[in-house]
Amino acid sequence: MHRRGTVDHGERHAARAVTLLLLLLFGLILIRLFWVHAQTRRSGHAARMERLDGPRGTILARDGSVLAQSLPTFDLEIDCWANEDMPAALADDVIDVISREVELDRDQERAIRDRFRLDKKRAVDRIARGTVPSNEFGADGSVLRYQWSRRLARGLCSRDVLTELARLDRRHFDGCRFRLRLLPSWKRVYPAGAPACHVVGMIGDDGTGKIVASGLERLPILSETSSESYRLRREGGMTVLEGLRTPALAGELDTSVIETTLDLDCQERAFELLQAAWKQTDSEWGTLFLIDLRDGEILALAGAPGFDPARRKESDSFFPVTHHALFVPGSVIKPLLIAEALERHAVGFDETIRCEGDDGSTRFKVARRRRPIVDDHHVGIVSLSRLVIESSNIGAVRVGMRGGESLHEAMLTDFRLADAPLLGLPLPRVENSRGQWVRVRGRVPGPDRLRNRRNYVSYTGPSLSFGYELLVYPLVFARAFCSVVTGARYELRLIRAYAEPGGPRIETPRAGPGLRMFDPQVVAWMRRTLAQVVTDPKGTARRILSDETRDVVGGKTGTAFQDNPKTGERTYWASFVGFAPVDRPRYLAMGVLENKKIRRFYGGEFVAPAVSDLLLYTLAKDRANRAGEDRIDARDRSGARARHGGASRASLGLASDSSPAGLGSKGGDR
After folding, report:
1. DSSP 3-state helix, strand, coil percentages of the chain (rounded to 5)?
2. Are 478 and 588 in contact (CB under 8 A)?
3. Diameter of the chain by CA atoms?
């Protein structure tokens, strides 16, 4: 019995010890929960996870430079609980931290301080609503009655600033309580700024609360986001950033990607030249672009007026003129007509053309009717090349009408002048009679107008011969001119490749020269003639002649106007298409300005200088790049000679042609 009692007594002691241990463990858990709860209440934030959806896609230049990108950023807000203004020291500390990333002026600092002040009309009276916890007291023992929330800053992305704000959030002040909140979002940045605005476009608020997009930003693929997310965790008053990438690493984010053909140096130069010409002439709009004739890739595509996609103003126009605006070609169409006429043997290379009226004046009445065709100066009876050099309207009409409607129809269809520029850029659409939304095409005379003999002879035929009675997209017209100087059917390309989030890189169809359109003799004759448009004393582009442009830059000027029958207002267009080098064209550039004020709005005076400067800049850049490559080659060769006992250049296979790369006279035979 004594032994059994001893065992029972020992079991009771063991059970009591286990119970005490469990109670102690349970107490520690309660203390931990109470401490976390107290810390959470002090910070005003329950521990939680916040997800940030994947970012919008990225747009890149040809060398990988970023044109548009989404960066992970945070907006800073403050929640205040107090019976009076928050301490001034708190406002000072917050302003000091924000200023490390954002430059604040006096007005902005004053606005932030105002958000720390109690405005009873805008604050929530928690006593009146019965939402005050019993343990919240101010310095004088009263409850913290008022609560308000304010936004202090937007777009913070510096890790140091975010970390410092997290430390500031743990500070305490008597008589009040506050909580700093970081709201995650994506900030759209445009490193190229205004120079690429009409191509890249923008996405954002138009000022009325409506989200609008233009340019490449309208492409649906950029809205496709990845499943990857980024979290902001707040626990016990401590802000923990998980997965937040710094701006330097933002390029590693898994987004959709669009790779363009734009060369940023050329794009910025084109924008500068266009802005200067646009401002000088006080024009309505303008465009200037550059094409690589080897592969049809667009190296620059600038528009005016421009805007900064990241800092938009109410007065900004988001109309993307680079691919939406149409123009009347005027005399710049003459090389297209003459090339088509030569190819069809409607006119001969050495033939003389009467570029004057039947009475020897500068006026020519079409089909003995009263409609006159007028030249600005007397050209006389001259060779076919001088018709182009001096840009005779009368001569062009005589050649065009000799070829007849078949020649004009071939010019419109072979050069595809009615096309819209399908380069991946979102184009304007209109609703047709069937209720379908279709792309806006260029406006050219249809078969009915060409085959109506009376109308054709009096109006459509003569008008088409010197670039009237049609509206064309500048990019489409430039594509046609590429065919004139290379002899081949041409395609252009603005988007090299694209990829969906996590998907493979898909390259777009290659562009550049295709099947042959013109005989090499026609192409060679056209290049020589267009070079004389610049070098000849009577050439319409003689103003750009210099030692740099002589026999290097060729091209054709264009001047046109159109009256609005409803308003009586007249619109003028000045244009110039240039290419370089003349002997082996590598680049083609085109500029167009629309104006309503200057009556004699000549392409040779107002547009040609910008086009010429862009071509010369690009050629100089090529020379600099080749010189840099030659220095690297020379260094490699000297090392090779040291290793191989001074091998000759020929034995190392390093002989090269130093002439500019480009397409020869037979380059269009592909």
Report:
1. 40, 25, 35
2. yes
3. 151
Please, are residues 375 and 357 in contact by the beta-carbon 8 Å criterion? Answer: no
Cβ atoms within 10 Å of 438's Cβ, excluding its own: 12
- Residue 327 near residue 219, CB atoms below 8 Å: no
Which one has a higher pLDDT value, 312 or 376?
376
- Residue ranges covered by each domain of the chain: 50-258, 264-308+318-496+520-588+599-620
Residues 6+ apart with CB under 8 A from 558: 329, 330, 331, 332, 333, 467, 573, 574, 575, 576, 577, 603
Q: What is the DSSP letter of 356?
A: S
Tell me how far CA of residue 518 lies from CA of 153, 405, 476, 489, 656, in angstroms. Answer: 62, 20, 18, 9, 30
CATH 3.40.710.10 fits 264-308+318-496+520-588+599-620, yes or no: yes
β 58-60/257-260 pair status: parallel
72 phi/psi in degrees, rounded to 5 = -75, 125
> Of the candidates 480, 554, 573, which has an alpha carbon nearest to the alpha carbon of residue 287?
573
8 Å CB contact between 520 and 486: no
Distance CA 567, CA 575 (A): 24
Distances (CA, A) of 187 to 152, 204, 333, 668: 16, 10, 45, 46
List of residues 6+ apart from 240 with CB closer than 8 A: 232, 233, 234
Short-list 388, 392, 372, CA closest to 380: 392
Task: Name which of 45, 18, 342 is nearest 166 in CA terms.
Answer: 45
- Six token digits for residue 587: 């680049």
Q: Which amino acid is at 439?
A: R
Residue-wise pLDDT tens digits, 191-250 = 999 999 999 988 876 666 677 788 899 898 988 876 555 455 554 444 445 554 444 444
- Characterize the bridge pairing of strands 363-365 and 230-235: unpaired
Query: Which residue type occupies 322?
Result: T
pLDDT tens digits, 522-563: 999 999 999 999 999 999 999 999 999 999 999 999 999 999
Lowest mean pLDDT among 480-484, 515-519, 627-631: 627-631
Tell me how far CA of residue 576 lies from CA of 332, 592, 606, in angstroms.
7, 7, 9
Q: What whole-number percentage of the chain has pLDDT above 90? A: 52
Class of domain 50-258: alpha beta
CA–CA gap between residue 218 and residue 223 (Å, rounded): 9
Give the global pTM.
0.78
